[in-house]
Every structure is written in C-alpha cells, then in structure tokens.
Amino acid sequence: MAESPPIHVEILPNAHNIQIGEQYNYIVNGNYISSTEQATLIHLLQPILDASHTRDRETSPPNSACFPGTRTDVIRTIAAWADSMLLWNTHVLWLYGYVGCGKSAIALAIALKFERRNRLVGSFFFFRNTGDRSRMTRFAVTLACQLAAAIPEAAPFIKKAVTEEPGLLGSSLVAQLRRLVYEPFKAAAKRVRLLKTSLLNGPFLIVIDGLDECEDRRDVEAFIDDMLDFFKKNPLVPLRFFITSRVEQHIQGRLEKEQVRLENLVNHCSRDDIDTFMSACFEAEKQRNSIVKAYTRNNGDWPLKKDKDRLVDHIGGSFIFASALFKYIVDPTDDQSTPMDRLPHTLNMNPGLDTLYAKTLSRSQRLPHFSDVMSTLALIFEPLPITGIAQLLGIQPFEVVRVLVNLQAIIHIPGTDDLPVTMCHTSLRDFLTTENRSGCFFTPPSYHHHLVSRCSTFVGGRRPDTTATLYSIRHCTKHIQQFNRLPPAEKRQFRQFDYVDMLMKFRTHLRSSDIVLGAKSITRKEMRSFKKVWAEFSNPKTEHLERHRFTAFF
User: Fold this and answer.
1) What is the pLDDT of residues 191-202, one digit of tens each?
2) Which H or E element spans position 31?
3) Selecting from 3.40.50.300, 3.30.300.130, 3.30.40.10, 1.10.10.10, what CATH number does the domain 25-268 have?
4) pTM, full prediction
5) Nephrocystin 3-like N-terminal domain: from which residue to which, for each copy (predicted)?
6) pLDDT in tens, 523-554
7) Please, what is the angle between helix 447-456 and helix 496-510, to 10°?
C-alpha cells in the first residue's frame, strides 16, 4: 500500500506580529468557548460540565427525553407561563409528580425549547449518587459559567465578584448564588440587547431538574428561600426558574407559596401519550426483531389491539414503567422465552415498578456473583464502569456482564467496559435498600463492611490509577461511616480492629506521592473525612501514638 501524502496545515497564513498566549478551550451547554472572558471564568470556577441538558445522557443520567408527539399539553402550559409578562405570572414554576412520570424528560424538552429561543440562562440536572451532581457544592459556580456562556454581558460582573472577593468560592451557597448568578444577571439585564429580548420575547429561564435528588437538604431549603426572597425584592427582573421534583417535605413546605406556580404532572398525564409511545415501540420492534418478524408473517399482527390496549391501561401514566415494561417484553433472556410469551405475563404484574424490578432481577438471580454485583450497585457512592466493579469485587469483567445483560430493562449497560453502569431510575436503588419492598433482593447496610474490606485491598497497590483504587481512596471512609451507623447488635459480628488496621494502612499509603498524584480527584474534604473516621475507630489506649502521628501528618 502506498504511503499517504503528508498532511499540510496552514495556521494564520500571511499573518504578521501574531502572539498566542495561554488558552483554555471548553464546550459549555453546546457553546464552544476559547480564550475569552468566559473561558477564564470556567478555569477559575471549575463548574460541573456534565450537569446541564447538553450532557451525554448515556453516561450521565437521567437518560430520558419526550417521545415525539407526546407531552405536548404540559410543555405548552409551561412555555406559556415562561413567555408571559412578569406582571401577570410568578417567577417560579414547580412541576411535581411521582417516580417515573416523566419530569426529567419534560425538563429537557423545556431547556431545549428555550435554548433555541436564546432565552435559556442555564440548566442543572441533579441525580443521586453521582458525586457533585447530587450535591449543592458546585451548583452556583456551574450556573454562573452557563450564565456567562449564554449572556456574555454578565461575564465581567461574575469575574469582578470572584477577583474582588477571594473567599467567595468557599462561602455559603446563598452568597455564591447572589454574587455569581442573581446580581450579574440583574446587572446584565439592564443592557439594551437583553432589555429588548426580554420585552419583545419574554423573560429568561433557568431549568432545575430533580431537586429532590440533591442530598444537601439544608442547602436546598436555603436555595429556595433565597431565590424567593430575591424575586420578592426584584419583582421586575426578567428571570424565571422552572423546577421539577418529587413531593418531599423539605421542598414542598417552601415552594407552596403565592410566589410559586404549582403544576401536578398527574393532571397532565395522557393515555394517548402512552398509547403513541407503545405503538411506536412495537412497530420498531417488528422491523428489528427477526423472531417477531417471523411470528407476524405466519400469525398476523402483534400485539393484537385488545392486548395493547390492556397493556396501555395497565401502565397508567408512567413513562418509565412503560419503557421498562417494553424492555422486559422484548429483551432476550436466558430462559429462551419470546416476546410473545412474555407479553401476557406483564398484564398480570401489579402496576408500579416494584413488581417489574423483582421480575427482572429474578432473571439473573441464580447466576454467580449476582448478589455482590447488585449490592455494590446499590451502595457505591459514584457510578463505576464494568471494569471498576469487577476490580472492586475481585472478579472478571465478563462475570459482571453476565449478571447485568439480563437486566437491561432496568440498568443502563454502556457499550464499552470503561463507561459507568447506571440505573435507569434512582427508584431501583430505593427498592434494593428497602427490605419490605425488595424481599430476597434486599441489600443490607452491613454490606458496607464488605466494600470496606475490598477497598482496603487496593490502598497501597502498585497501580494507583485503576478505577477501583481511585474509588477506594475517594469513598472508603464513607463506607466505614455508613457501617458505623448500624445498631451495635448488627456490628458485633465484625471485628473493629480490622478497621483500625485498614485505616493505618490507608493513612500510610496516602503519604505516597504516586497514590496522591494518581488520585487527582481526591480533595481536602475527603482527607478530613478520613481523619474523622480515624479518630472514631482508633482505640485511645493502644493507638494513641499512631493517632498523634496521623494528626501531625494531616
């Protein structure tokens, strides 16, 4: 084969006196940013880059979007509110509903709609057990960076706040939101371009999805209180918040105010939407699945209209139930049953996700390592790829895949072994960790002990850059803390000195430069957490000297 000619590239041809300094290149909310004030802000603020509506939903769930032709009524209602004059409507709309009714899909649709209209300031999609996306720690800086990208006029005000107040990034959530989001937007909104946009087209919008997924409840309360206070004092600022969540006391008690418009998604659930979705899914399956193709050639249409109608009635208004139920019907299984065999069984399932979860999990229940794989998925503090799960459990990646391949109706399995495995919905984690719901599939809190034991095998290893090692360094102490919360009777079967030995080894190897350099994401907060756990578990009589040395090290 002949060699390809060398590639010729010209950069700035015929240019003179050109100087290129340090550059930062980012993509935020689909906007490419390079060597600008916004790029400098991103470098300073370090936002979460996979928290917005533009994230890769396959690797950063929730992976949900409205099926074409559905949810038109509720989307029209929300858009009309967002387009209305400030004097005629509230600054905040809260869309609430039960698990799986499609809140995240609607939030995505609204974010995309207002991005196309150039009126989206930013979006943040919370998701439990995903590190920073389940906390408020970087919420304000993430919104601030999105604000700077969407409205460049706000960038100088954000930069001024950061440079004039060096301690701002370590201050309270309320202070950060005021100085980095609300005040810069208010200042920028006075500019001619933004005034014209808001007067002619309507206010700007921030979309917050899954507020109930945030673990920092007090910060959630503070965010809501301060947001409403800001709008009370600034009733004409052209900004609105669209918030979605389940009904939880700490959210409901603060959002049920005259300043907030409430929308119950149950009132917008349409049987026609579910029927449209299921009909399209079955039509696509008939084109894709050779078994279904062969069946319909000899037996006519499938499913029969009466069976599909029964299925739609059985589903009710839950899109996640509809999606999971469809996957349960059509996904291949080890028992050699066909989609035609499985459809009648779904009609006998109790409406709701618990029965579906149990039925799906039973497909892999008897496989080796099933309990360990599912318990690990239920308790880990951030999603791990297949290779990371295998490393942590001391098994082969193919053994993890063998367990998960039958569970694709409820678990997202990525195309490669190095992308994170995620649950289709966080309600699966709730199911697995609630004994009266999951029964034989229950993951006991004491399993944290096993995860601590496994984490300890990676601390001080020769390969500090493996997924399991980095996970162990970041989260081992959290597993210890969770185990330590168990009643004394449940902890007696485990030996406390095992933890002291493990912590001593953990402390020793954290000193090693290759471990610390390999774990680039380890933070001072995690180091302090380790120190706290060390103090809790060390015996003051026998470990006094070691604890003294440990304290000096930190």
Assistant:
1) 878 888 887 889
2) strand 31-34
3) 3.40.50.300
4) 0.69
5) 89-246
6) 555 555 555 655 554 444 444 444 443 333 33
7) 40
